[in-house]
Specification:
The protein is mostly helical. The chain is built from 23 helices and 4 strands. Among the domains are: 79 residues, no CATH class; 266 residues, no CATH class. The strands form 2 sheets. Strands 1-2 form a two-stranded antiparallel sheet. It has a two-stranded antiparallel sheet with strand order 3-4. The mean pLDDT is 91.
Length: 511
């Protein structure tokens, strides 16, 4: 009989722990996201929150100079010296404070400009929230009775076959918003007697990033009423738990609004006459937001074609299906009624939150008796959707739009939609690699070209090691490095699908 000493036992436990980590889909998804991250900031809106965080640290105020001076014309309560309060959520500015401090410290250590280091750090900030969101999705599915293997397969598909990937590796705040929304949903589905207090915590964090999600609060409230209708004493207690964090946050937000904008209910958008909601906007936006090649959520995420599986979900868990459908429907109608249409991003940015929610139904596909043809079609749709996300992760969504602006005097269209243009751009980068783009990428003649070499971030595929090589003046290695990174990403993507997709489609797996 072999007796292990304490050191051997500790070593064996560590090896087992490492094995568990490596076998987890979260490990490989995190690796995929870390490799494909941008390494620089892509969104001008992020700069407002960065400047606010800096102002808090350096000056003890939230007033900043606007990124675009034109914004002074519509800003609320600007100062005489041209400073404003950002209209974006205060939660994001507070979240950025550790990154700003880290950038300052690293700037001194490595003698690299602080702005560059801060931008590099912030380009990764969404990845932990992306993993947190996937963890919440797994908790939701397990609470609904799904097996671990089906939950893991579902998060893999959401992570690499939907726009979840694209937004996880940019500085858009949509992933952070979604993770807090998923946390709220996970909380109300749990068995904890404090679940509505947990809900209150996550939903308060969500509102700190984007107050527009207040539109979903009545949906959760209605769900709570239905759930607690048989016990009025418990219902009153749960209402108190639901207000545990939300009520103090609402008071603090009102005070902050009054200090900044002179009104408890002003959020910073009141000076902009272009921001409206209405049925006319909904009529104009709802169909393009669904099927358009410019920004339709279905072409950008073909896996959404599995949406009818919600019929099966409703048969297995009617209350959850109703809650999910109300959340999806409310947010879809609200965002399509927005005057700004679709937002500047990959596809329909304002509707991004409903994409992972809509795809949750695929976790139940093994409960449906699908013919062999339907299973093959489903696999092909997953592969197609995954390729689209690989294209978006490898390119910068600004490039086709910049091409259009560059040549609008010589070529006034018709332009291809964002999706086909980005695919053609990816093919050009893969085969050619230059920033001398054929006009055919956006719908023009193939023998005419648009030179975008002045845009340094457009050179090469949009991965942080590629941008690091440019910063270090090692441009001669870009081609080899970008193809190598793309190959690794592709192998990770294929490997994850090969492992988990078959397990989603069969009933034989159990924990």
């Amino acid at each position: 009989m072999t007796i292990l000493n304490s050191n051997d036992l500790h070593g064996q436990l560590m090896i087992n722990h490492i094995r568990l980590i490596i076998r987890s889909p979260f490990f490989w998804i995190s690796l995929l996201y870390l490799i494909s991250a941008r390494g620089h900031l892509e969104v001008i809106d992020t700069e407002y929150s960065i400047r606010t965080a800096k102002a808090i640290i350096e000056n003890g105020t939230m007033r900043i100079h606007p990124v675009d001076n034109e914004f002074l014309k519509v800003s609320v309560n600007p100062s005489k010296d041209g400073k404003i309060y950002s209209q974006y959520g205060i939660g994001l500015a507070i979240l950025f404070i550790p990154f700003i401090i880290s950038g300052k410290i690293l700037s001194v250590i490595f003698a690299i400009p602080q702005d560059i280091l801060t931008a590099f750090l912030l380009s990764f900030y969404n990845i932990p929230f992306a993993i947190l969101g996937l963890w919440f999705i797994k908790k939701i599915l397990l609470s609904l009775g799904r097996k671990k293997i089906h939950a893991d397969a579902t998060i893999v598909i959401i992570a690499i076959a939907t726009a979840y990937w694209s937004y996880s590796i940019t500085d858009f705040s949509e992933i952070t918003q979604l993770s807090f929304l998923l946390g709220s949903l996970s909380a109300v589905l749990s068995c904890s007697h404090l679940k509505w207090r947990y809900f209150s915590f996550w939903f308060a964090l969500l509102l700190s990033i984007k107050v527009a999600y207040i539109i979903l609060l009545p949906v959760f409230f209605f769900y709570g009423l239905i759930e607690g209708k048989k016990n009025h004493s418990v219902l009153i207690k749960e209402i108190g738990n639901g207000a545990y964090f939300l009520a103090p946050f609402g008071i603090l937000l009102g005070i902050a609004n009054y200090i900044r904008f002179g009104s408890f209910f002003e959020l910073g958008y009141g000076g902009n006459p272009g921001i409206t909601f209405g049925i006319n906007h909904f009529i104009d936006n709802c169909i393009p937001s669904t099927i358009s090649l410019h920004y339709g959520i279905l072409p950008f995420n073909p896996i959404l074609i599995a949406f009818p599986l919600w019929i099966k979900v409703s048969q297995l868990n009617k209350s959850f299906a109703c809650l999910a459908m109300l959340l999806i429907g409310t947010w879809f109608c609200f965002m399509c009624s927005y005057s700004y249409g679709w937002g500047w991003g990959w596809g329909q940015r304002y509707l991004f939150a409903i994409i992972p929610l809509s795809v949750l139904c695929i976790a139940f596909i093994d409960q449906v008796d699908l013919p062999k043809f339907s299973k093959i079609l489903f696999v092909k749709i997953i592969i197609c959707s995954s390729v689209i996300q690989l294209v978006s992760a490898s390119t910068k969504f600004h490039e086709p739009l910049t091409m259009q602006m560059k040549v609008q005097d010589e070529f006034d269209g018709p332009y291809y939609g964002q999706l086909p243009s980005t695919i053609l751009l990816f093919v050009h980068k893969l085969l050619d690699g230059s920033t001398n783009y054929p006009l055919s990428i956006i719908g023009g003649e193939s023998n005419e070209y648009v030179n975008l070499s002045d845009y340094e971030s457009f050179q090469g595929l949009n991965f942080w090691p590629v941008h690091a090589l440019k910063f270090l003046n090692l441009d001669q290695y870009i081609r080899v490095v970008e193809i190598s990174i793309l190959s690794i990403i592709f192998m990770l993507q294929v490997g994850l699908l090969k492992i988990y997709l078959p397990k989603l489609l069969t009933r034989k797996y159990s924990d």
